[in-house]
Design a protein that fits this description.
CATH topology of one domain: Tetrahydropterin Synthase, Chain A
Low-confidence stretches: 46-52
Helix content: 40-55%
Main location: cytoplasm
Subcellular location: Cytoplasm
Radius of gyration: 24 Å
Mean pLDDT: 90
Shape: elongated
Distance between the termini: 45 Å
CATH superfamily of one domain: Elongation factor Ts, dimerisation domain
Strand order of the largest sheet: 1-2-5
CATH architecture of one domain: 2-Layer Sandwich
CATH class of one domain: Alpha Beta
Organism: Ornithinimicrobium cerasi
Strand content: 15-25%
Keywords: Cytoplasm, Elongation factor, Protein biosynthesis
Protein name: Elongation factor Ts
Order of helices and strands: HHHHEEHHHEEHEEEHHHEEHE
Number of strands: 10
C-alpha cells in the first residue's frame, strides 16, 4: 500500500481540484509522492480533455470588474459545485477576468483567443481542465460602458461563489440608485433595456398569441383590442427593464425611480450561471 495519509489526499485535492478517486489513484501510482501525483493528474487530465468536451458544465461562478466607467462581466463554468468553490478555480476565474479587462474583450471567443503569458486563454483553460479533471469553459463575457458603471454579485447559495452578476450603466444620479437598480436586475432578470430593443417580429408574435388566446377564452370581439394591448404591455413589463415595477417600490417603474433620482439607465448586463 502506498505511503500517504488522509491529510495528503486533502492537500492534493485542494491544490489540484481533482476528484477523490482520481487523487487516490494518483497517490497510489506515485507511492505517496505529492509532486509526482500532481504530475500524474495533469498528464492523465490532458489526455481526457477531448473526452470532456461533450460534458455539461452548468456550475461555476461570475466575476466582475469596474473601473472608470467600464465594466466587465465573465461567467466561467465547471461541472460540479465542489470545483466551483475550490480556491484554484476562483484563482483561475480572477486570471480570466483580468485578461478580459486587459484586452477589452466583449465576447468569449475573443477572450479565449487572446494571449496570456505566451499561451492562449483556451490553452490555459485546457491545462486547468486537465489538472482539475472537469470541463471548464468561459461561457460569456459582457462589457458595459457609461458615465457611471456599477456591479452587483449575488450568491444563490451561501456556500458557493456568486452565481448572478450584473453591470448597470447610468448617466446622472448617484451610485446608490445605480446599485439599487443593479440589485433589481439581479432579482427580476429583464432581457432588454427599452421596448425598442425588442425585435418587432417578437412583439408582433406576442400580439398574435394574445389575440388568439383572448378569442379562445371567448372574450367579446369589441373588447379584443384593449385586451390584446393590455397583454402586450404585460409582456413589456416582464421583459423591459425600464418598464418593470421597481423591486423596492413596486408602485413605480424602474424608469420613474431613476428619473426621480436624476439618473438615466443607459445599459446593463446580467449573467446567471447555467442559464
Amino acid at each position: 500500500m502506498a505511503n500517504y495519509t488522509a491529510a495528503d489526499i486533502k492537500t492534493l485535492r485542494e491544490s489540484t481540484g481533482a476528484g477523490m478517486m482520481d487523487v487516490k489513484r494518483a497517490l497510489d501510482e506515485a507511492d505517496g509522492d505529492l509532486g509526482r501525483a500532481t504530475e500524474i493528474l495533469r498528464v492523465k487530465g490532458l489526455k481526457g480533455v477531448t473526452k470532456r468536451e461533450g460534458r455539461s458544465a452548468s456550475n461555476g461562478l461570475v466575476r466582475a470588474h469596474v473601473d472608470a466607467g467600464v465594466g466587465t462581466l465573465v461567467e466561467i463554468n465547471c461541472e460540479t459545485d465542489f470545483v466551483a468553490k475550490n480556491p484554484r478555480f476562483g484563482e483561475l476565474a480572477d486570471t480570466v477576468l483580468a485578461q478580459a479587462v486587459a484586452v477589452g474583450a466583449t465576447d468569449a471567443e475573443a477572450l479565449l483567443a487572446s494571449e496570456l503569458d505566451g499561451r492562449s486563454v483556451k490553452e490555459v483553460l485546457d491545462e486547468a481542465n486537465a489538472s482539475i479533471g472537469e470541463k471548464i469553459e468561459v461561457r460569456r463575457v459582457a462589457r458595459v460602458t457609461g458615465d457611471q458603471v456599477v456591479s452587483y454579485l449575488h450568491k444563490t447559495n451561501p456556500d458557493l461563489p456568486p452565481q448572478i452578476g450584473v453591470l448597470v450603466a447610468t448617466t446622472g444620479g448617484d451610485e446608490q440608485v445605480a446599485r439599487d437598480i443593479a440589485m433589481h436586475v439581479a432579482a427580476f432578470s429583464p432581457s432588454v433595456l427599452t421596448r425598442e430593443d425588442i425585435d418587432a417580429t417578437t412583439v408582433e408574435n406576442e400580439r398574435r398569441i394574445a389575440e388568439e388566446t383572448a378569442r379562445e377564452e371567448g372574450k367579446p370581439e369589441q373588447a379584443l383590442p384593449k385586451i390584446v394591448e393590455g397583454r402586450v404591455n404585460g409582456f413589456f413589463k416582464e421583459n423591459v427593464l425600464l418598464d418593470q415595477a421597481f423591486a423596492k417600490d413596486p408602485k413605480k417603474t424602474v424608469k420613474q425611480v431613476s428619473q426621480e433620482a436624476g439618473a438615466q439607465v443607459t445599459g446593463f448586463a446580467r449573467f446567471k450561471v447555467g442559464v
